[in-house]
Automatic annotation (TrEMBL):
Keywords: Membrane, Transmembrane, Transmembrane helix. The keyword Membrane applies. It is found in: Membrane. GO terms for cellular component: membrane; stereocilium bundle. It comes from the Eukaryota. The lineage of its organism: Eukaryota, Metazoa, Chordata, Craniata, Vertebrata. This is Clarin 2. The keyword Transmembrane applies. The gene is CLRN2. Belongs to the clarin family. It comes from Loxodonta africana (African elephant). Its main location: membrane.
């Protein structure tokens, strides 16, 4: 059975893996991966708006991996409309890249559960050593943690690539717009994106915790006092 020191660190590792699992679920569910400002270029051109009047033609947009919302400002007041990525909007995007992000996050969910399971297993019993070194006693926990962190990081980079190189926000803003043309004037990564980054950070912290758990504690040896027998003790 592992000692209290290892049990404490394995318990922390399992908590970090579970936290990463929950964070990915939240990131998938909350539609706030990116938010921004969109300019109604058609409305600006129609009225030949000056710089001071542009604020009347700037609306808002936010979206996640499944749904989002935009507010159009085209001179007639704000008009809010909600949209879903699947099944129609995904055809206007880079479908392969978007689906890749989702698949990577689903894989990260599975790996987070695997990592948590092996951390709990290490708390209960000492598994058979597979390799020498710090990762020997918890090989599968280390592998699952590393793979999960890499998968989440790859999903984050894929989403950033879709935003920067495939004009994701502009495509979403102009989806099914026949009269108006929108231009993205500002965009920033929102809370769900940073929650996903926090999930990758939790996996990195998990690897550190597992490494620390392998540090051997110094053994405390109690000094045994030698009994002295005198002649008086023999008599009694």
């Amino acid at each position: 059975m592992p000692g209290w020191f290892k049990k404490a660190w394995y318990g922390l590792a399992s908590f970090l893996s579970f936290s990463s699992f929950v964070l990915i679920i939240v990131a998938l569910a909350v539609p706030h991966w990116l938010s921004g400002k969109i300019l109604c270029q058609t409305g600006v051109d129609l009225v030949n708006a000056t710089d001071s009047e542009l604020v009347n033609f700037i609306g808002d947009i936010y979206y996640g991996l499944f749904r989002g919302c935009k507010v159009r400002q085209c001179g007639l007041g704000g008009r809010q409309s909600r949209f879903t990525i699947f099944p129609h909007l995904v055809k206007e995007l880079n479908a392969g890249l978007h689906v890749t992000v989702l698949l990577l996050l689903l894989l990260a969910l599975a790996l987070a559960l695997v990592s948590m399971g092996f951390a709990i297993l290490n708390m209960i019993q000492v598994p058979c050593r597979a390799i020498n070194g710090p990762g020997g006693i918890c090989l599968w926990n280390v592998l699952a943690g590393k793979c999960s962190r890499g998968v989440v990081a790859l999903a984050i980079m894929s989403f950033m690539a879709a935003v920067k190189f495939h004009s994701l926000t502009e495509r979403i803003a102009n989806f099914q717009e026949k009269l108006f043309q929108f231009v993205v004037v500002e965009e920033q990564y929102d809370e769900s994106f940073w929650i996903c980054v926090a999930s990758a950070t939790a996996h990195a912290a998990n690897l550190v915790v597992v490494a620390i758990s392998q540090i051997p504690l110094p053994e405390i040896k109690t000094k045994i006092e030698e009994a002295t027998v005198t002649a008086e003790d023999i008599l009694y």
